[in-house]
Amino acid sequence: MKKQLFALLILLVIVTVQLFAQLDHNSTSWFRKGPFCADVQSLAMAPTNPEVLYLGTYSTGIYKTENGGENWTLCSTENIPFYEDTLFHSPTLPCWWFGDFYPIEALAVDPLDENHVWVGTRLMGLLESTNGGESWQKANSTLPDTLAENYIVINPQASDDILLSTGQNFLLDNGGLYRTLNGGTTWNIVDSLPHGESYGMTTTARDPVDNGHILVVIHSNGEPGFSWGLMETNNDGSTWEEVTDDFRFLNISINPDNTQNIWGVNLNGFGQYWLMLSNDGGHNWETCEGLDNPTKSVTSLYADSDFNLYIESYHSEQSSAKSIFRSEDQGASWFELEKLLDRNNTVGGDVINLTNRCQAETTNTNNIYFGTYYGIFHSEDGGTTNLLQNTGLMNSYIRDVEVHPFKCDIVYASGTQGLWKSTDACRSWEIIHDDYAGNITFDPLFPDTLYCSMFSSSIVKLMRSYDGGITFENITFDVNETITDIAVHPVSTNIIFLYGWSSLYKSEDYGNTWELIINDLPYTKYSNLIIDPQHPDTMYFGKSRSLDGGLTWEKGVLDKRIDAVHPQNSNILYGSSTSGDNNGNDIHVSYDWGLSFHLLDKYSGGVFNGQNIRNFTIAKDNPDYLFYCTSNDGIHFSIDAGANWQQLEGNYEKRTLDIIPLVDEDKYYIASHGDGVWVYDPTYVSVPDLSSPRKENKLLRVAPNPFNEQATIYYETNISGQVNISVYDLQGKRITTLIDEHKTKGEYEIIWNGKDQNAKEIIPGIYLLLFQSGKNTNSCKIVLFK
Fold this sequence. Notes:
The protein is mainly beta. Helix content is 3%, strand content 41%.
C-alpha cells in the first residue's frame, strides 16, 4: 500500500510539473508591437541635421529618429542606469513609477556631430554617446555619481565647452553649475556661484549675440546671501554678479534682436508663476500685458531662434487643463496650438511642459517638435497644425486590456495616454480615443457595443460606442461623480450598472438614462462590481453583497473583498484582505458562499505596502487556471484552482496591471505599466530583419566565423534575467536552442557544434543567431562551411 501511495505521489508530481511546463514559455514567442506612445522628458535635435532627433523617456531609455520623427528606434540601453542595479542610490519613488530605467531629464547634441550626444538622468549622473546612441558611457569620472541634470548647454562656438545645470528638489548635496572645457575629460563646479545640498540650477542661457554673456537661474531652500534669482557673467565665467534676487524663475529666454529684452516664468509673492519680461537685462521685471490675463498662471516657456514665444498655461480661466500658446509678436498677441492640450490632469507631473521638451529647427523655425506625456507632436507650420509621431515608441501605460468575446484577434487597450484597438492580435494598433481611458466593458451579446470610463480635463465621463470604437458618445448626463467601475448584466444587456465613490447607478436602456439606486455603499479602493454569472441578481462590491440586482445591500457582511465568482459554482468566491484603501497582498477562497475563507496565495514582495496584487483573473475557458498581476514581479498563476502557484516566465515587462489568458489557445495578453501590451503567442517568432544593416554587436560575438566543426559564442548580460540563444535559418525556422535559462549579470560563452535540436548535422550555409536577454534582442549571422 505504501508503494502504491508513493507511486501515486510521484505520478502526481510528474503531472504537475508537466502542466506547469505548459506555461514555461519560450521567450522567442513573446512580443510587443505597441501601443505606440511615450512619456517624453527631454528632446534634442541635431544642429547639423534636423532629421535626426533624440528623445528621452520617463522609464524606457532613449529613442532616436533619422527621418524627422516618422519612426523611432530604441537606442542602446547599455550603461543606462537601471533601477535594480542602483540600490545604493534608490529613487525617491518606488520602481513602479520609474520603470526599467531612470528618467532622462536633459539631452544635448554636439553642434558639429549628430552622433555625439549628452544625456542627463534624474539622480544618476551624466552619460555620453559618440556613435549615435549605439553605446553609452558615464561621463562622471570628475562628476558626482548621483548628479541630477536639469539643463545641458553646449557652446555653439566651441563644442568642448559644456555647461551643466544640476540639483533637483534640493535633496542632493551636489547642486550647482558644472563646466568642462575639454569635452568632458574633466569637469569642475563653478565655485563662484552658489552650490551645495540646498541649491539647484534650473536653466542656463548663453547670450545669442555675446557668447561670453551667460545667465544662470538659481533656486535654493531660502539660503542666506543669495536665495534665488539670476546671476550672470559678462566675461565667459571669470567673474559672476547678481542680477536680481526678487523672483524665483523657472525658465528664461534672451531675445537675439535685443539682448536686454529677457523673458521669464517667475514666481511672484502670491505663489503663482507669471510670464514676465525685462527690458534692462533682467534687473527689473513686468507682467506680459498681451495675455488675456497678465496674471494667469504660466508654467513653462520656450523661444525659438526667431524669438517666437511658446508658453504652457491654462486652457481657460475655468479649466484645470493646460495648453500651449504661441506669440509671433513678442507677447502682444497669443493663439492656442492645435491638439496640444493637457487632456489628462490626473497623472501627476507635467504633461506638456516645454522645458527640455520643445525644439525648433534653427534655420526653419516652423519645423518644431513638442514632447508630451502623449508622445511627440511635430509641426511644420510653427504649431498651427500638429501631427502625433509615435511610431516605434513603446513607453505606453496600459491599465486594462480586453479581448472581443467572439474574435480573439480584436483587442482593446486602455490607459492614461488613451484608448487603442488592434484587429490583428496586437501586431498593430490604432488609437481610437486620446483621453485618459479607464475600464473597458463589452456588451457580452453584442460586443460591438462597448463602454469605457474616460477622464478629460479632470472631468470623468462614461463613453459608449455602438460600432466597435469608431465613434463614441458621452452617456453620463445624470451622473455627477467619479466613475470607478462599470458592469453589464450578462443576460439582459440593456441593464448597466455604474459605480461612483459611494453611489450605485442603474440604467435599463443601455445608458441613455440613469437612476440612483443607492448612495451610501461603503467605498473600497480598487474594488470592482462583480455580478454572479449564474445568478445575475447577486452582486458584490468590496465586502458588501446584494441579492436583488443592487437595490438593497448587506453592507460589510463578508470578511474579504470579493474579486471574482467561480463561473460555474456560485458558492466559490475569491477575495482578498484589504487595509483601508489598499489593494491587497493575498488571494483567499470561500467554498461556502462567503461564510469562511481560506488563504490560497500571498505576495508581499512588491514596492507598495498592502497593494501589490493588482488584478485577479479566472481563465474563461478553464476556471482551474487562476492569475493575478503584481506591481514588479509579473504574473503569478495556478493551474490547479490555487493549490500551487508560480511566476509566469518570459521577457515581458514585470510591472503588470491586467492579463487576458486564452488558455486553450496558449495565448496571453498582458497590460504593463509603461511598456505597452505584451503578448505570448506560440505562432509568433521574433526574427530580426536581415535586410537591414547590422552594426557591431558588443553583447554577442562568434569565433571563428565562418566555422567548420564548432563555434564559440560569447555573450554578455547587463542585468539578471532569462537568457535565450537560438539558431534560425534565413526563412525564420528555428534550428536549435542553445540556452534558455536564468543568468546573473556577467559575461559567458557557449559552444555550438553545427547540429540541430535533434543532434543532426545541418547543411552548410548562413544562419541567424538570436540572443535575447530580458527585453533586449541582439543577433548576428553565423556561417557554417564544410
